[in-house]
Amino acid sequence: MLNELLERPESLEAALAIWDKIKTEQGCERTVSILQKLRRRDLVEKYARWVFEMKPDIGLKLFTEGARTAASDVGFHPNPLIDMDVDQVVTFLNSVQQAKRPDRLELTYE
Question: For residue range 48-62, what is the model confidence (pLDDT) as tens digits?
Fold first, then answer.
C-alpha cells in the first residue's frame, strides 16, 4: 500500500527521498525499480548509494537487469535503462566502495 501511495508517476522523485529515509530491504527494491523507471544518472548517483551499502545484491540489479544476455556478448554491459556507460558505472561503484572501505583497491574495467 505504501508503494501505491508513494510511487505515482508524478511523485517518483519524492518517493526516492522517502525510501532513502526509511532504508528498508523493501526500500532497496523499490529504489532500484524507481531509478530504472526514471533513467536518470543524477538520481542514481544520489539515491543508489545507500542501497549498495545496505544490500549490494539488490543494488547490482540496477546495472544488470535488462543487460544484454546473448551468448556472443562478452564482458559487462550496463542496463540500457540507466543513462550510464561502463566507465561511469565503475566510477560510481568505486565511490561506494571507497566510502564503505577506504582500504580497498579500486575496480578497473578495460
Answer: 999 998 998 899 888
Whether residue 110 is contained in a domain is answered as no
Residue 57 domain-assigned (yes or no): yes
Q: How many domains does the chain have?
A: 1
Q: Is 25 exposed, middle or buried (0-12, 13-18, 19+ CB in 10 A)?
A: exposed
Q: What is the pTM of this model?
A: 0.68
- The whole domain housing 86 covers 2-100
Are residues 58 and 51 in contact, defined by beta-carbon separation less than 8 angstroms?
yes
C-alpha cell at 22: 526509511
CA distance 26 to 58: 10
Confidence of residue 27 (pLDDT cuts 50, 70, 90): very high
Residue 13 included in any domain = yes
